[in-house]
Structure to design on (330 residues):
């Protein structure tokens, strides 16, 4: 069981690394006109240098990642000001489920995978273990309350950033009739004349910050996953090189980076039920969790969430096999 969970979780970490590497390399390519292959290698060096901060403890690395997230958040605040979305429509579609035609299921599943990255569940657990070791049940509950608040804030920020990407794209491209925008390069080239050069540059800066931060997090997650499931690790530089190889091959072959980005996020969602149901199984057991065992209501809500994610994944597989989507618009 441990080996199976390790393999599945490593696939998730590698899918993220592939996506973020491509995103950061594409941002460097568009910002500085660096060839994609060279940009990919530069991304690898930068992320490795970020990871070397861990030798000084996790706090310096945590601050760097937090700074990247702040840059991404501020970038989309700026993009929101540039794009001036219809807030009534944003509010409605934030709570009303809706699926459009054709690739809508794949995009919905990809958004879930991009927001709730399965391997980061393990990374967060591994990192919190090192911070404070509780001496009794009262301290365990106190640390757990702080951890829950931290996760809610982190997931809230991630959700808002993903939401802002979607309403910005809808406001700029859909409302202006540019519905053929299907990749990042076209989005950047279309965004610049519509909203001005500043909007295009901000878009690429956010892409670069996202790529570098998530790539570093993915590498750390891979180390934690290997240590936790199979009890050994490899040097960070070796993991960095190994996980770069798929990206280098894709860039060298000239594969569409945007399509690869979407598919890699879909892989994350396909993997997501594994950690969800594993966590449900373990956290409902008092012999493992002790004072922190889940309430029955928490367990049932978690099962419902896992069932929704699994349903969307099965729906995507059904669509890929050629099945119709009768309840979607169009």
């Amino acid at each position: 069981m441990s080996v199976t969970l390790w393999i599945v979780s490593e696939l998730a970490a590698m899918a993220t690394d592939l996506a973020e590497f491509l995103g950061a390399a594409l941002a460097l390519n568009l910002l500085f006109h660096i060839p994609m292959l060279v940009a990919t290698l530069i991304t690898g060096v930068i992320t490795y240098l970020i990871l070397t901060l861990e030798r000084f403890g996790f706090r310096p690395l945590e601050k760097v990642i937090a700074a990247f997230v702040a840059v991404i958040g501020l970038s989309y605040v700026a993009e929101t000001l540039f794009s001036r979305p219809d807030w009534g429509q944003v509010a409605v579609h934030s709570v009303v489920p809706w699926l459009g035609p054709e690739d809508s299921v794949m995009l919905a599943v990809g958004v879930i995978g991009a927001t709730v990255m399965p391997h980061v569940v393990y990374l967060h657990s591994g990192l919190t273990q090192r911070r404070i070791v509780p001496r009794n049940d009262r301290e365990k509950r106190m640390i757990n309350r702080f951890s829950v608040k931290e996760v809610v804030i982190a997931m809230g920020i991630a959700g808002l950033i993903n939401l802002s990407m979607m309403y910005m794209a809808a406001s700029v491209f859909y409302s202006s009739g540019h519905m053929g925008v299907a990749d990042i390069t076209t989005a950047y080239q279309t965004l610049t004349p519509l909203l001005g050069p500043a909007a295009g540059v901000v878009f690429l800066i956010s892409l670069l910050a996202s790529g570098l931060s998530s790539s570093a997090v993915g590498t750390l997650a891979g180390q934690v996953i290997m240590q936790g499931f199979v009890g050994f690790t490899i040097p960070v530089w070796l993991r960095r090189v190994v996980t770069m190889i798929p990206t280098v091959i894709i860039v060298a072959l000239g594969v569409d980076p945007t399509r690869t980005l979407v598919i890699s996020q879909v892989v994350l969602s396909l993997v997501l039920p594994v950690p969800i149901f594993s966590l449900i199984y373990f956290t409902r057991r008092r012999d493992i969790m002790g004072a922190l065992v889940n309430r029955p209501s928490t367990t049932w809500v978690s099962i419902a969430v896992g069932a929704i994610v699994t349903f969307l994944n099965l729906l995507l597989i059904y669509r890929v096999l050629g099945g119709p989507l009768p309840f979607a618009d169009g």
